[in-house]
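Inverse folding, one chain.
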């Protein structure tokens, strides 16, 4: 699987410029994915430089470059500091994170990240994990579901959505993406169906993979392992991530205090 078919790196030049790479520096790519950013960082490193790239998705490991200056870390980036200390690294010169879901995840229909078509209701970033989005949809009570859709999907009428799901799963478990789309059809706005379903699936994905907690943890740990003058480059795509990152950049914590 080539990098081009797996994932096209976003804002590549801006990321490299932001990292201000030193040829002999130590860097971390928290979200390796298809390896586009990883490969470009390696191109800017000299023989003494080193790059550590994190990814919990086994698919990503297939894109790991064979390079003495590179180490693949099969882990969620929430364990940033511990994973680096385990490898004898206390401080680094720069950290990059390209948040959210890669195009590969949406294109791999069987992973269940997309509401288009029919696939198992999966959405696991780490396919070694046992719990899937179907488990959330079928076991969370109405209150918990409504809270997820409000907090992570920023949807309106979340109680109606939770009620629709409860009614549907009373007949049979909701096991596929198409079954979930059908279950929430009574409360799906006809004119904004795509936007509504995007937010609904986003909310379930964030809850399942603990994305907001992982982001907060990684940002907090970055303060401890970045060298003075080190660079932190974060790409965020939706308001939830964006709010946390901006607060952190301004004040050093996710709450913005």
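Residues assigned per position:
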């Amino acid at each position: 699987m080539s990098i081009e078919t797996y994932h096209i790196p976003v804002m590549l030049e801006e990321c490299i410029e932001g990292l201000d790479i030193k040829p002999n520096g130590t860097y971390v790519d928290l979200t390796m994915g298809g390896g586009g950013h990883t490969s470009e960082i390696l191109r800017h490193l000299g023989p003494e430089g080193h790059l550590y790239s994190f990814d919990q998705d086994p698919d990503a490991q297939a894109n790991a470059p064979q390079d003495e200056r590179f180490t693949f870390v099969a882990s969620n980036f929430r364990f940033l500091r511990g994973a680096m200390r385990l490898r004898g690294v206390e401080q680094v010169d720069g950290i990059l994170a390209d948040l959210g879901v890669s195009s590969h995840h949406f294109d791999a229909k069987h992973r269940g990240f997309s509401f288009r078509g029919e696939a198992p209701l999966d959405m696991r970033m780490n396919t070694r994990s046992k719990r899937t989005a179907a488990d959330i949809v079928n076991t969370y009570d109405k209150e918990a579901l409504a809270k997820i859709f409000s907090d992570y999907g920023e949807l309106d009428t979340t109680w109606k959505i939770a009620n629709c799901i409860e009614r549907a799963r009373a007949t049979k478990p909701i096991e596929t993406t198409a079954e979930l789309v059908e279950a929430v059809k009574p409360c799906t706005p006809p004119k904004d169906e795509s936007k509504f379903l995007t937010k609904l699936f986003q909310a379930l994905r964030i809850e399942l993979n603990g994305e907001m907690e992982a982001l907060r943890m990684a940002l907090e740990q970055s303060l401890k392992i970045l060298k003075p003058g080190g660079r932190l480059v974060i790409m965020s795509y939706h308001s939830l991530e964006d709010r946390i990152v901006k607060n952190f950049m301004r004040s050093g914590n996710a709450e913005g205090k």
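The first strand starts at residue 26 and ends at 29. The longest helix spans residues 193-209.
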